[in-house]
What does this fold into?
Amino acid sequence: MSIRKFAVAGATGRLGRHVVDVLTEQGHQVVPMSRATGVDIITGEGLAEALTGVDVIIDVASWHASDQEAATEFFRTATRNLHEFGQKAGAGLIVAVSIIGADKATGGFIAAQQVHEEANLSGPLPARILRAAQFHEFVGQLLDWQQGDVAYIPALPTQLVACRTVAEALVDLAVDSEAPAQPAPGTPIPEVAGPRKEVMAEAAALLGARRGVKVVGVDGSGMPDAEIAADGAFLPGPHAKLAGPTFQEWLDAQP
Ligand SMILES: NC(=O)c1ccc[n+]([C@@H]2O[C@H](COP(=O)([O-])OP(=O)(O)OC[C@H]3O[C@@H](n4cnc5c(N)ncnc54)[C@H](OP(=O)(O)O)[C@@H]3O)[C@@H](O)[C@H]2O)c1
It folds into this structure.
């Protein structure tokens, strides 16, 4: 494999730090981009300098809250800037992460990913998208959002996947010189998910037990798209790549 120069937008995030690790382990040059490294993909500060000589941009940046409108605006602006600055810098490809079910969501953060996907596929740079299932690391975030020692978590199906596994799949997609343009006629957007279906509240209860938090499973009503989520709208399709560790294995390996 030829060594190439990658810029990672969102390099300090839950997923981004694993993308940086995988690229570095494979011997690629990596430019980490986040506000913490002096690059703002919304205002454009530091972006032109960071993208100098970069071949491929991997976009795993995110808005920090679940509000659909604000997240949509974030993805629209960030994607436009990454494409425009990337084109000027001579980059040849953007690879962006989205969420499984983004095409089915009607509201909330997951629906904001539709704009992220559309903006990427509108160019000007060629773009590849990988839809990922909810992360093992997201379960802790759900507990963090709740107060006290009881957490109310939706008992909805999910096929949790480790951020490291998603990072490996993203890098595979980024370095694959044979990958077809997306969306290739008649082929779905690639997906990556964990090895088995889980129930979010049950996974949260395993983590809660470690943290001294009691988890109560709830039906998810009040949450955007709870009904279609209960019917499996956010589970991987038959073409998805499934890979471990399971949530339990991942949890056992945490310090
Ligand atoms: N959570 C899940 O279960 C899940 C599942 C599938 C897909 N995804 C998607 O995966 C992606 C990454 O999620 P994550 O949980 O890893 O996100 P995260 O931990 O919140 O990280 C977000 C990253 O974006 C950076 N960032 C935010 N605003 C920025 C700006 N203006 N300029 C430059 N960098 C900026 C942050 O760094 P600074 O704060 O330093 O700027 C950070 O590095 C998102 O698109 C998310 O929707 C998530």
Summary: The first strand starts at residue 5 and ends at 9. The chain is about 35% helix and 20% strand. The longest helix spans residues 68-89. The mean pLDDT is 96.
